Amino acid sequence: MGNHPKKKTTVDIYGQQYSIIGTESTSHVRLVASIVDDKMREISSANPMLDINKLAVLTAVNVVHDYLKVKEQLEKLEMQLKEKD
């Protein structure tokens, strides 16, 4: 499993501070927080009447949607590579 020490990184997402504890680098955690913040602001600007809870859920739905599209693309590429062998 590895012996990575846990670190605490404080980030700002949509005007709120969060302490993230994990083994990832501070720069990685800040990048993730920045992407979440950007996505929340993008959705909020298109839907200014959303409360914070609905905004957070819509952000999660959008991010998971993007993740699944990328995962599908990766699986297709892996299949194409196997077919060439």
TrEMBL record:
SUPFAM superfamilies to which the protein is assigned, alphabetical: Cell division protein ZapA-like (SSF102829)
Keyword Amino-acid biosynthesis: no
One GO cellular component term: cytosol
Subcellular localization(s) per the UniProt record: Cytoplasm
Primary location class: cytoplasm
A Pfam cross-reference name: ZapA
BP GO terms, sorted: division septum assembly; FtsZ-dependent cytokinesis; septin ring assembly
Keywords for the protein's UniProt record, in alphabetical order: Cell cycle, Cell division, Cytoplasm, Septation
Signal peptide per UniProt: none
Subunit structure: Homodimer. Interacts with FtsZ.
Protein function: Activator of cell division through the inhibition of FtsZ GTPase activity, therefore promoting FtsZ assembly into bundles of protofilaments necessary for the formation of the division Z ring. It is recruited early at mid-cell but it is not essential for cell division.
Protein name: Cell division protein ZapA
Protein source organism: Metabacillus lacus
Organism lineage: Bacteria, Bacillati, Bacillota, Bacilli, Bacillales
Designated gene of the protein: zapA
